[in-house]
Design goal:
Elements (H helix, E strand, L loop, with lengths): L1 E6 L2 E6 L5 E4 L11 H10 L7 H4 L6 E6 L7 H14 L7 E6 L8 H8 L1 H6 L1 E4 L5 E6 L5 E5 H4 L3 E7 L2 E2 L3 E2 L13 H8 L16 H12 L4 E7 L5 E7 L3 H14 E3 L4 E7 L9 H11 L3 E10 L9 H9 L3 H10 L5 H11 L3 E5 L4 H6 L3 E3 L2 H12 L5 E4 L6 E3 L4
Helix pairs in contact: 1-3, 10-13, 11-13, 12-13
Amino acid sequence: MEYKVGFGKTNLPIEIDDKNLLGVLHANKVDIDLVGEAEVKRALENPIGSTKIRDIVKKGDKVAIVTSDITRPMPSKLVLPFILEELEKAEIKDEDITIVFALGSHRFHTKEEKKYLVGEEIYSRYLCIDSDTKDYIHFGYTKNQTPIDIFRPVAEADKRICLGNIEFHYFAGYSGGAKAIMPGVSTRGAIQANHSRMVDEKAYAGNLNTNPVRLDIEETIEHMPIDFILNVVLNEDKEIIKAVAGHYIDAHREGCKFLDNLYKIPLKEKADIVITSIGGYPKDLNLYQAQKALDNAKHAVKEGGIIILVASCKEGLGEKVFEDWIMEAKKPEDLIERVKRKFELGGHKAAAIAMVLEKSKVFLVSELEETFVRNTFLDPFHDLQSAYNKAIEYKGKESKVILIPHGGSILPYRSEN
């Protein structure tokens, strides 16, 4: 039977014999009552494990609202008016409110980008600032010796409200929750110490309870409390289909459960061959972005199997540090050793690809030149059917196949994970 997989602004056909196909993985159907602003209002009126914002803050409090930077899909301009309305009900003055963009170790925003994130009215009415890794207060260390270094305006606030979106995160388990503080408004050294644990076998998408990265993140909050969160889950059109509000653990976990019900797909068995795509343009412009689909697909493939990653990569690798690390490595193992020695943003995704390569072969169907792809330790193809035929040749005519057309969102799992 013929299937189509997103590739750039088009689709690539693939013929898969029914006897080989274990399944095509799509999002689960879930009940959605409210969307957008109505869902945000509902969540704020029904906080989980917490009272409402208006009952948490008091007149005269200095309040820091921490929200995502421009690299994240969090719709801050839609959510913020409802948070600010709550603060107004508690008689918090405009000048006592600071909106902080959690940059982690990303670049500073331009003035226009800040306006875009919160909207003209909010930008002109409230102080909106970027976090700065050089301006911080030190609060000690976690058990794993991660420095607790928090951006000063957040650390000095009387109350902290954190916003974010929840999606699977390939080594912190999920985004959202306490990630607004660590790495959001933490120092580069603190982020490096925390993220260096990504090589631990328990640091994988969908794992919270035993994930050393997530546990370390949440230990930070014992020293730097979050008073209230509002997190959202978005569909592929970036619409809010679920909002959770309240306690930074309890509300976050409810959001994670919803995400699981939507995108976590149980497997009866793993496949010899997994075909995945990030969904085409614009997500597959470079390998740096497409890597997410590869990392999710690793949960569906048998050890020694083959993952076929379909991504145009028209703009190449997509990030300088990522490219430098890959081009400087002699073999994939070098990347894993390097990230253990010193975590570096950009390099961490190169190491993540190397960790997939430890257990499976990866074919890349792209627009990239073949020699260049081989230098990334992947097998190059320009045609999906050719890649699939080669995979069948390697693994045998009875090979079992799983197809994941939107691999950036879908998280396959088996209980042994």
